[in-house]
Amino acid sequence: MTASPVCGFCGSSCPAPVRAERAFCCHGCRVAYQLRSETPASPNDPSRTTIIRNLVISAFLGVNSMSLNLGYNAEYTTEPSLRYLGFISFLSSVIVLILLAKPLAREAYQRLLARSISIELLFVLGIGATFILSTMDLVFQSGPIYFETTSILLVVYTLGKTIGARIRFKALEEAQALTDTISPKYPRIFPDGSRKDVPSSQIARDDIIVIAPGEVIPADGEILQGLSHVSEIMFTGEPIPALRKQGHRVFQGTRVHDGELTVRVLANGNETRLHRLLAGVQKAMDLPTPWQTDADRLVAWFLPAVLVTAFGTFGYWWSHADFMSGLMNALSVILVACPCAMGLATPIVLWAGFGAFTRLGFAITDPTAIQRLSGVTVIIFDKTGTLTGAECQAVNFVPAPSDNSLPTYTRARVLALIRSIERYSDHPYAKTLRAIPLESKEELTRFSVTQVTPLPGVGISATVEMDGQRLAVSIGNDGLLSSRHLAEKYSRESAARKTLFVKIGNELIGSVYLNELPKQDLQQLFARLGLPVEIFTGDPSPDPSLFRVPVRSGLTPSDKSKAILELQDNGQRVLFVGDGVNDTPAMSVATVSIALNSGAEPAKHAASLNFAGQNLEVIATAIDCSRRIGHAIRANLVWALIYNVTGILIAALGLITPVIAAVLMTCSSVLVALRAHRLHVRLVPQDTGLRSLPMPQAAQR
């Protein structure tokens, strides 16, 4: 059957369709897959041991071929009896070819089918030419033999590609480990109260399950019973476990610490927040980034340039020395060339970056987001919902002017009246109004609220009995005001604040001023970002004392997008952070955008990144990560330039043998790959506390 074009080991795209049970993007992934042996029956499973055995045998034969070839090459012109050494070396090389060459040849062939010149083709040319010419020289005793080059090149290539494949897979494995730690079974509570362990894969929506201390939560849900600290670092960026109790939401992949929780399942499988996060990472890894595209372009011209240089070297040395010198030096040029910093290290760095962003709580919807985030020069925040929450703080009550008020209502009585009515509302402002301190608690006993009616888009009204009177009381925004004069008057007096008005009948009694509460210490957030910050808001008059940074108020959605375009026309690269539907146009035109996971779905679809956490300072960590990724990619490209120019020059001058050239190339490849792999450890700075926490062992049931 025709296999999927996705690599069966690292998940990358395969270069060409193949007809096999499982497809691989490269020979290294094929070998690493066998080494890993996903479902071995035992540690001695044949699928695990075969490739190790082949590598060990090939390395042994290659090293011994060196000694045999040295003896033969030193004496073959004077001691024909030593010819047997050459034939032993020949047989050793044939065995190595049988053990290791077939996957390499198949890989090179598949790349050619995809019209791609790859490093595999260079190895095939070098190995094939060395083996054929050495065989001819052995048969006709016309020159030295280099069978050890054939064997060692195959061993070096196989090991190098295997190491690279393991490193690539590690990036995916790290993210996938979040779900792999889920226990195989969890107790389910049935309607009759009985309990039975069910496999985690069979947990369904509305099931009631029990999670013990130390276990990972297997699905998104709501806590019905229990109290525990829950580690939510992958969603919030907070290293300290959060206290979760009845009524709180919990999510798949988070870990219960110190208490048993009974949870009603709200989402499982592909519907969980963790799955969406990992799906975003996988999607981004499958799509090309500008960094990767640039690296692919370099590889596309690099390999043909190496071949041209090799042919030039061959022609020069053949004309100035002999045929074999030309061949060996040309092979050295081919084998010393290392495109790995471009073709291998760049995706490894990007995969490490995707893993780091996942740990920080970001879902990547645009694969170019990391690169664009690294170049941001100004950050723009939406205000409401992003920097401030829905809750407010009541700061003052101001009676209406005496010519319009009812003098029989004192300040204490009006405050008690407000609290009595707002007990029947679940609006976010109601909680704020219920928290207004009373001047006299005795006033609360004077009211009897008999009828409450919501006023959509405005507020709430109620019928209140007080001292034998039935009063119609309304509390809400300026939609309560019937007089344009009063609306304008109170709008001026309520500048920089949200204002609610109180009416009894048709008479305005007064107004309550509310201040917005920031979600966190905004000054610390802005200082941590280290970039110019502006705030865009649709509020006509926000409180400037909350922010102490430039605020543009009264903006419509189109005004926000126009302002961003103006900044970009002036050379700025803009990061926009928001959460609402009205932020969608701004997110679409910004250089890069972040939507909070608590926001509206259209905003999350329009944004380049979705942030599942609460601590906005993690955005500063993300910007730092993106810069480190860019620096690592540029450093690898500089290393590639220096190494390849120097190595190819030395090889063309005939100063190294093909074996040494192959070893240098492999060392360079492994060095670049390991440097790229180490990056994921350094992407999240120590002082942020965003590394993995030691978790308690799951409790024994």
N-to-C span: 46 Å
Strand content: 15-25%
Residue-averaged pLDDT, rounded?
76
Helix content: 40-55%
The main pleated sheet reads as: 7 strands, mixed
Q: What sort of overall outline do the alpha carbons produce when their principal axes are compared?
A: elongated
Derived from helix and strand composition plus strand pairing, the structural class reads: alpha+beta
Radius of gyration: 35 Å
Low-confidence stretches: 37-48, 491-496, 685-701
**How many individual β-strands?**
22
Estimate nothing, just give the exact number of structural domains.
Answer: 4
| Number of helices, counting only DSSP H or I runs of 4 residues or more | 21
- Strand arrangement, major sheet: 10-22-21-20-11-18-19
In short:
The protein is α+β, with helices and mostly antiparallel strands and 701 residues long. The protein has 21 helices and 22 strands.
Structure explained in plain terms:
Helix 3 packs across helix 5, helix 9 (323-336) runs antiparallel to helix 20 (618-652) and helix 11 runs parallel beside helix 21 (658-682). The protein starts with 26 loop residues before the first helix and ends in a 19-residue tail after the last helix. Strand 13 (447-455) and strand 14 (459-466) form a beta hairpin. The protein is elongated, with a radius of gyration of 35 Å. It is an alpha+beta fold. The chain has four domains: 1-181, no CATH class; 185-272, Distorted Sandwich (Calcium-transporting ATPase, cytoplasmic transduction domain A); 369-387 and 519-607, 3-Layer(aba) Sandwich (Rossmann fold), CATH 3.40.50.1000; 389-518, Calcium-transporting ATPase, cytoplasmic domain N (3-Layer(aba) Sandwich). The longest helix has 35 residues, at 618-652. It has a seven-stranded mixed sheet.
